[in-house]
Amino acid sequence: MAELKLPELAEGVSEAVVSFWHFKEGDSIKEGDEIVEMATDKAAFNVPCKFSGILKKRAVQEGDTIKVGQTLAIIE
Prior knowledge:
single chain, mainly beta, four-stranded antiparallel sheet, 8 strands
């Protein structure tokens, strides 16, 4: 299993809000697929998955505010 974490953001930005999940738990994901849309006060962006596998668990829900380095999802 692998943890997909919120990557480093723009300078001075340490957290983002989960806007929209593009995949459901149990879905097959390929490396590079945009798995979740995030938003900060300055921009919206998609987070690409760094692994191929099955989305085992969404660690956060739409509307949650999370910090850089926090786990977004577990990929099996």
